[in-house]
Structures are given as structure tokens and as C-alpha cells.
């Protein structure tokens, strides 16, 4: 019937609300189905992983390296699906943060290995929640779980830089090794002339630019590099001040980093 008068407007509004309500119901049905399927996939992945592990323990000595590599890749893929039994407040009760801390310590091993031994706390928060599926945790729960690592004998630790950035790193991670690589980078002829950026250090260290900048700032705090702030951003140079003689500031030494810097500047 044609839409005429107030009754027609009311009928059109009613049809619009009914259509919206149906769309919402369909959307939530799809979401519930997705959540149930996700849990089923995690359970299936855990069963397949256990079957692979039991098969690898009972395998004969005639198994070749190619088969072993295929099984290891399958195990890594299954583990990436998610955490089969995530710790929850309902299941753990008063021991929630302790059990969450241990589960988190086991989870971060693979991401830390891929990130070079150190990873941003925000990145771990995203990765861990994605692996937990629908059982998400809050940022406060994550920080409390990380803070408990000091009481447990775990191979990882929570670290806070002077800038306030918080990261998770392996206890075997050596700052001296990182500083040595930064020193080698800033001592190259091109770096002696123009310095390096956080992106340059990131490529050498194999970390994200934000993490590379934190390493450079830490190296600056140790007196290894000096910063230059320009419209182009931060650039870091080798610290030449320790090699300058206070008695003769214009003395050009024929050895050391100072001499290399003079040569690089002269050639440019």
C-alpha cells in the first residue's frame, strides 16, 4: 500500500526497526558460531599436536630429516592456532595471576626468539590475547603476571627503559653485545659523516625501529654515542669527546676513532 499520512510513516519506521533487529540477530548468530568453532579448532589442534608428539617418540631410526622437518613445521603451525587451555579467573581462583604468569612465560619464548631476545610489552599483549581466543585479559593482568617473574625461576624478565617503554627480554640478553654492534655501526665511514637513524640501527640489530631507538638512547646514556636532533629527526654519532685531549683540543691524532672521523670528513 502507498505510504500516506502518519500511519504510512509509522509503518515505514516499524519495517526499518524489524529489518535492523533481524540484521543484528543474524550478526550475533554468526559471531557465536565463530566463537564455538574457534574453541573446537583449538581443541583439535591440541589433539593433533599430542598425536604428533607421541608419534615422534615412537618413531623408528629410519625416519629421514625431511620427515622430521615436516613434523616440526606441523607442530609449530598447530601451536600458532592458540593456547588450548588458557588460564581464567574462574578456573584458577586466587592463583590466577601466578598461573597466568607461568603460562605467559612459556608463551613468550617463541616470539622472543623471532624478535632477537627482546619484544615490546604492547606487542606481547596483542599476541597473547590473540592466542587466548575469547578468553581475553586486561593490561593490568598482563603487568601483574610479568611482575611475578621475579619470584619464579623463569628465563624471561620485564624491563623498563629510562624513557618509560616496557619490554620483555630473555635473561641471557646482553646489552654489551648490543652496544658493541651499535659501536661497529656508527664507526663505519658513512656513519661517521652523517650518523645513523633508528631505522639504520633496526636493520643491523634485527629489531623494530622503536626498540632500536631505545637501544640507541641506552648507548647514549653509556657515553658511546651522541645524539643530533634536526628537522629530519634523531641521528646518532660516535662519541668523540673522550678522545679529545683537554690540553690541546685541536690536536689531530693519527690513531683511533677520532682519526677515522677526520679521514671520513676530509674525503667527503
From TrEMBL:
One of its GO terms (biological process) is protein transport to vacuole involved in ubiquitin-dependent protein catabolic process via the multivesicular body sorting pathway. GO terms for cellular component: ESCRT II complex; late endosome membrane. GO terms for molecular function: phosphatidylinositol-3-phosphate binding; ubiquitin binding. It is found in: Cytoplasm; Endosome. Keywords: Coiled coil, Cytoplasm, Endosome, Protein transport, Transport. The keyword Protein transport applies. InterPro entries: Snf8/Vps36, Vps36, WH-like_DNA-bd_sf, WH_DNA-bd_sf. Its main location: cytoplasm. Component of the endosomal sorting complex required for transport II (ESCRT-II). Belongs to the VPS36 family. Component of the ESCRT-II complex (endosomal sorting complex required for transport II), which is required for multivesicular body (MVB) formation and sorting of endosomal cargo proteins into MVBs. This is Vacuolar protein-sorting-associated protein 36.
Amino acid at each position: 500500500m502507498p505510504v500516506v499520512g502518519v500511519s504510512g510513516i509509522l509503518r515505514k519506521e516499524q519495517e526499518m526497526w524489524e529489518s535492523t533487529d533481524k540484521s543484528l540477530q543474524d550478526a550475533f548468530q554468526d559471531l557465536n558460531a565463530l566463537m564455538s568453532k574457534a574453541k573446537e579448532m583449538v581443541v583439535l589442534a591440541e589433539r593433533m599436536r599430542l598425536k604428533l608428539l607421541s608419534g615422534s617418540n615412537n618413531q623408528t631410526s629410519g625416519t629421514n630429516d625431511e620427515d622430521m622437518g615436516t613434523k616440526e613445521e606441523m607442530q609449530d603451525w598447530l601451536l600458532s592456532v592458540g593456547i588450548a587451555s588458557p588460564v581464567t579467573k574462574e578456573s584458577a581462583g586466587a592463583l590466577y595471576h601466578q598461573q597466568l604468569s607461568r603460562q605467559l612465560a612459556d608463551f613468550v619464548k617463541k616470539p622472543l626468539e623471532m624478535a632477537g631476545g627482546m619484544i615490546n610489552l604492547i606487542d606481547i599483549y596483542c599476541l597473547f590475547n590473540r592466542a587466548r581466543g575469547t578468553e581475553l585479559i586486561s593490561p593490568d593482568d598482563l603487568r601483574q603476571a610479568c611482575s611475578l617473574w621475579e619470584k619464579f625461576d623463569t628465563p624471561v624478565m620485564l624491563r623498563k627503559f629510562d624513557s618509560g617503554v616496557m619490554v620483555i627480554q630473555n635473561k641471557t640478553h646482553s646489552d654489551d653485545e648490543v652496544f658493541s654492534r651499535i659501536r661497529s655501526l656508527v664507526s663505519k665511514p658513512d656513519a661517521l659523516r652523517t650518523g645513523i637513524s633508528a631505522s639504520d640501527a633496526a636493520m643491523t640489530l634485527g629489531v623494530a625501529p622503536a626498540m632500536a631507538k631505545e637501544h640507541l638512547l641506552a648507548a647514549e646514556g653509556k657515553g658511546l654515542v651522541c645524539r643530533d636532533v634536526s628537522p629530519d629527526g634523531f641521528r646518532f654519532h660516535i662519541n668523540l669527546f673522550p678522545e679529545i685531549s683537554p690540553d690541546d683540543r685541536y690536536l689531530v691524532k693519527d690513531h683511533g676513532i677520532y682519526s677515522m672521523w677526520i679521514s671520513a670528513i676530509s674525503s667527503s
